[in-house]
Amino acid sequence: MKRISLVGRSVSPLKVMMDIEVPLWIALILKEQDKCNLIPPPWLNWSNLNRVYKEEVHNKYRFSQLPWNWQEVALTFLRFAPDDIDEPISRLFSILQDLKEIRKVKAQRGLKELNESNIQLNGLSSMEIGELKPFVVQVMDELRLLHGASNEAILQENSDEEVEARD
What we know:
By secondary structure, the chain is mainly alpha-helical. The protein has helices at 24-32, 46-58, 70-80, 89-111, 126-166; strands at 4-6, 9-11. It folds into two domains: 1-35, no CATH class; 43-163, Methane Monooxygenase Hydroxylase, Chain G, domain 1. It is built from five helices and two strands; from the N terminus they run ββααααα. The chain has a two-stranded antiparallel sheet. The relative contact order is 0.09.
């Protein structure tokens, strides 16, 4: 196949039995046409995901390192390229679900410690942040309202004390 020019990069000419890194969407198109096999990323295997799961359980206040799009990539491989994965799909799907659930619980636990000016979501994937976004926005709005009301009460109390001091 000839060289493919894309915005910001190009894909080298594709040749038979040659490994080449291409954007996932191109690989999926070629896979659908039976023109290639996909190579799963190194982290997408049961032993690595099980190690990450154990880290998640052990570190209650920190997320383990996974790619920012780990869920999307994993689900894409499980759905569109299961024949390119050497391990049982059900086993991978199970550990991925377990990882997703424990990370969700940790994120929700972390949201209980929010304040009106700061939220730290280091280590969460784009999909995890997207799932939490509506809840976080609502909580942050409520915290801003509460913080504003408490500041107004403090200002009112201080101005009342100044009036009494002048009398």
